[in-house]
Every structure is written in C-alpha cells, then in structure tokens.
Amino acid sequence: MKNDSKKIPYAIDLAASLFAMALLLGFMYATETVLIPLLFSILIAISLYPLARLFERIRLGKATAAILSVIVAIAVLYFIGWFIVHQSIIIGKDATAITNKVMSVLDRAQRWVETTFNVQRNTMMDQLRDQGNKMLSNAGAMASATFGSIGNILAGTVLVPLFSFFLLYYRDFFREFFFKAFKSTPQSKVHETLNKIYTVVQSYLLGLVTVMGIVAILNTIGLMIMGIDYAWFFGTLASLLMLLPYIGIAIGSILPALFALAVKDSAWYAVGVIAWFQVVQFLEGNIITPNIVGSKVSINPLMAIIAILLGGMLFGLPGLILALPLTATIKVIFDAIPSMQAFGFLIGEPEKEHLKINATQELLIKWGIVRKPKMEKKVKIDIEIDNDEPAPTTTVRYKEIHEAENNPYENLPQQDVPKKNRDNN
After folding, report:
1. Is the pTM for the entire model greater than 0.85?
2. 100, 86 in Cβ contact below 8 A?
3. Helices first, then strands: H and E counts in the chain
4. Taking 50 as the threshold, does the pLDDT of residue 346 lie above it?
C-alpha cells in the first residue's frame, strides 16, 4: 500500500518545538515555589548517590542508607552555615572601630572628589539624600520581597531534605518510569542517556566542590601574605560564592577589599586584594576547572553566560546557581534526540578545527559548498643524480662435468635425480 503521508516541513516543526519550549518555561516560572526545591533536591540526590551506595554495600537497607546520606549532607551544610555566622559575630565585635575607620576613609574620598573634580560637598550630599529617598520609597517592596525570600528559604529547608530522601529511595522506580515513558525509543538508549545525565551532573558538582576548596586555599594564602585579618573567613566566603559562575569570586573580593580599606593605613591593600582575587579567578577559569572537571561538562562560555542570565531572569539567585547543571542536562538530552542534535552541538564546546585561521574555508569544503582548490600550474621538477661509483661487476664461475669424470648422481635414488640427467644413468 502506498504511503501518502506528507512529511512536516522543518519550519513548522521548529516553530512547534520553540512554542513548546516557551510553554515549558512559562510552566516553570509559574511553579517556581515547588520547582526550585525539587531541582536542588535532584542535584543533592545525585551528589549523595555514591554515599548511599556505600551505606548499602555495608548491608544497610535502602531507606536507612538514604536517611543517613541526607543527614550527612545536612551536617555539612550546618557546619558551613555555623562557620559563616560565627566568624561574622566575631568580626561584628569590632564593628564600632571598623565603622569609624570606614567613615574616615569616606571622608577622605569625599575631600578628594571635591578637590579633583571641583564638586561641592553639598551637591554630593544632596545626591546621596535623593538616592536614600528613592530607596526608602521602595522599602515596602524590598521588605515584602525579603520576607518572601525568607519564606521560600524556610520552605526549602523542609522540602529539600524530604525530596532528596525520596529521590534516593525511589531511584529505581523513577528509572522504570522513563523506560515506560519512552517505549518507542530503544531502552538501551534511554538507559545510556540517564547514566550520562548522572555522570555530567555529578562531575559538575564534585568538580565544583573540589575547585571551591582549591580557590579557598589560594584566596586565604593571598590574604595572609597581605596581612589581612580573618583571612580564612574571607577566602572561604569568596570560594562559596563560586556557586554564582563567572561573577562569584569578583563579588567575594568586595568584602575583604572594604575590610582592608577600613583597617589598613593604605588603600593599596584593597587594590591588592581585588587584584589577587582576579588572578585566582583567572587561574580557576583557565587552569583549575578545565583540568578537574575536564570535558565531561562541555558548555561553551557564550551559552553558559546566556544560560546564567536566563536563569537569573526566571528564578533570581537560585536560577544563577541552577543554570549550568540544567544546561548540561539539556545538552545531554538534545544530543540523544536526532532532531535536536544541532542545538546540543550549539551548546557544546567548539572543536579545534573551528578555531583555526582557515576554519571558514575548511568548513565550506567539509560541507561541499566549495570544492577543494586545485593547482592551476603544473610544476616540473628536474632531478639529476650524480653517481661516480663504478657499476658493480659479477663474476660467474662454473665447472663442466665430462663423461670421463665421476657422475654426481650415480649413487642417488632415481626419484632424486633431475629428469634431464636420468637418461645418462
């Protein structure tokens, strides 16, 4: 029977995919309150999976292993929070002295601006007062947003451990759901895609934790060399802000720079703090992270920045943290779907052939747009070989056998005698 079904045009197929993606983004934005704790729970469950497997290998039940893994994660997060709060309280004890020094620095800066740019102090105070009034006018909205964020954080502290436990405990149940949901796809491919998502996300998380530890040590060493107090606190806090990709270390350098500006006699200490943190960020982005995380999380920087901006627009601060692991997961899914492989290629890292000087010409030849150039002129090459050595001579010696001499085949069996000599015997 002849198949009269028409193939859907690519433009309509692409428009339908983009429309479905827009609906998905709208759904994600509408369900932000539940979706954000769920996404964080998925990341935590993936990072805790090796620990849960370790507990299961010592013959603990699956539920017990999941509960113990979540408790370990809570303990680690509690210790980090306690360290930050404890150090903040210690620094706050000297708040009066620090405030006086900060005010004196601001006064010197104000006088410098007045003498350099000929701006009257009253003008500066009026501008500051106007900015203060604008901030106070938006105080209600800021307060409501703050309390709303606190409410979300409190809800997350309850939901995230609960979701993480069930994700660990029901992990095989969820895997079978994907097998049932994609029956038309080969089950081996579904299994391979799920394993690849797990590998990519876990590589990103474990690599991020390792890089944060290295960056914390480097930050602390630099602050200690410059004689900045509370070096471990500022160095660790800046490394924790690496949860915000590309901008975390830069933001983390502001607080120790202001502290150095307040407690040190010279402003060059603050400049040194910012410069050292920028050096650490350069090392992290070009040496540390590529060698630790490697090519398992292959997202090119342009797509990473766009993903971070979109994540911030959708979910705010949590979106900045979730942007890269979600983008890496989306890339794995796109690579597994034939119609979306081009978009997965767009998210990934360029190959070396795309970064060459003559990459455009090679690309056009690769896709058959232009032909490989041929040489228009034939080049004739004359080769002369000088060989002064005399030609080798060959000397052949032979001996004739006459009838008067002994026959060499006389005592041999008949079958071993050459055919032409058998008649002579």
Report:
1. no
2. no
3. 17, 0
4. yes
